[in-house]
User: What shape does this take?
Amino acid sequence: MDSKKPVHVFKKHVFVCTSGKTCPQEGSDDVLKTLRAEISELGLKKEIRINKTGCLDQCGNGPMIVVYPDDIWYAHVKSSDCHEIIQSHLLGGKPIERLFYDGSGKKT
Assistant: This one.
């Protein structure tokens, strides 16, 4: 067994769906830009990575965001939610329950 520990380059890795049938029309590019801008302004680009991703196969519930390593899925995210996601979840460790998505096609 290898005794090496896994490498964790970023404390948080945020994936924003920017493709698929509906996320682009639902504002995913604005969400991505807003998250990236605030993370950059806070000087956190080396700790928190914001990536666009392909379709997460949850069309109609976007914009969708997934936060790792927390395995938290958010649905129907708006640009106006980004500051709260960053401050409460990414920095404070308290996910935003009102945006949770459980994979059933509905918000939880």
